[in-house]
Write a structure and sequence with these properties.
This protein is globular. It is an all-alpha fold. The chain contains 15 helices and two strands. Strands 1-2 form a two-stranded antiparallel sheet. Helices cover about 75% and strands about 0% of the residues. The two termini are about 35 Å apart. α2 crosses α13 and α7 runs antiparallel to α10. It has one domain.
């Protein structure tokens, strides 16, 4: 059994991890705070994707669409004079309603048809935003009212907000996992036709999972737009973003509460390490490592038996001492 998955220990390690991220502003290092914000942001989105991709087993690639819509709705609301927090809430609600309406249509597709359709949604929303220049600024992008305060204060505030969103998604994940919705989603993942035959309302459950996968991405997008102060269609609706998030979940362990947390943290730290040390080859190296892990560790890092690895390391050390 994996050490991290062993009940209370996993939650203790999570609490320590969140505490480490929360205390980064005390280091007086802007780079460390930026990394912590990225980890919290991507963890929230990975946990969100886990509802539809991990628990339900539907390969959704719509994350960038929900993130981008959250960015633009929040930004437009602020530019219209809506108070900051209310603008974030409106963006979150709009994304949730959009996902629910979209899910009722696109979730009729299955397998690779659904995957292709979800990617098309990202491109379609990007084109709409790029073409609607009067409202969104088109391809020139949109300036967003900046958060007030010194740069260090703003970064700390954004970090704590991202951590709050991240922990909210985590708690919702636990509630879903141990509730009727989680049971229904796992049934759909195992065999959707059989789940439908035994009385599971598969359509309603899938729409609920798809909406949850979008809702928190919209919230993250709205906060992100306020943090960076400028958004454009290329950055907000990045295909790379919509690929990164599922990879994080697969890296950590899909269908679990702690897997996306582990995968997002590992991915961001690895990406930063290779970016800093192998500028020209960082994406190739990172991609190769991820492909290797997915092929040879399909259950993700959470499936590793760390206790067994530790015992092997201890035994190997004893053998070396005996040999000498």
């Amino acid at each position: 059994m994996s050490l991290i998955r062993s009940g209370r220990l996993g939650f203790i390690l999570l609490a320590l991890w969140v505490a480490c991220l929360a205390f980064t502003p005390l280091l007086d290092d802007a780079y460390a705070v930026r990394i912590a914000i990225s980890i919290a942001m991507f963890t929230a989105m990975a946990l969100s994707w886990n509802f539809i991709g991990g628990l339900t087993g539907y390969p959704s690639f719509s994350t960038a669409a929900f993130f981008g819509i959250g960015c633009y709705v929040g930004a437009i609301a602020q530019r219209s004079g809506v108070p900051l927090v209310l603008a974030w809430m409106l963006a979150t609600l709009f994304v949730a309603l959009f996902a629910a309406a979209l899910g009722a249509i696109i979730l009729r597709l299955k397998g690779h048809y659904f995957a292709i359709g979800s990617i098309a949604i990202v491109e379609l929303t990007r084109l709409v935003v790029s073409s609607w220049g009067g409202m969104t600024g088109g391809g020139d992008g949109l300036n967003v009212p900046l958060l007030r305060g010194a740069p260090t204060e703003v970064a700390s505030l954004v970090l704590y907000i991202m951590l709050a969103i991240m922990m909210t998604v985590f708690v919702v994940t636990l509630l879903v996992e141990h509730g009727r919705l989680g049971f229904g989603l796992r049934c759909i993942h195992q065999n959707e036709d059989a789940a439908d035959m035994v009385g599971v309302d598969t359509t309603r459950y899938k729409i609920a999972a798809y909406t949850l996968s979008a809702l928190f991405c919209g919230a993250v997008g709205a906060v992100y737009a306020s943090w960076v102060g400028y958004i454009d269609p290329t950055d907000s609706f990045s295909i790379l973003l919509t690929i990164k998030v599922p990879v994080m979940v697969l890296l950590g362990g899909p269908g679990t509460a702690l897997g996306p947390v582990l995968g997002a943290g590992a991915f961001v730290l690895l990406e930063e390490f290779f970016w800093a040390n192998f500028l020209q080859w960082n994406r190739a190296i990172l991609g190769g490592i991820i492909v290797f892990l997915i092929f040879f560790l399909p259950g993700g890092l959470l499936k590793i038996s760390y206790r067994r690895l530790f015992r092997r390391a201890v035994d190997a050390q004893r053998e070396r001492k005996t040999a000498t």
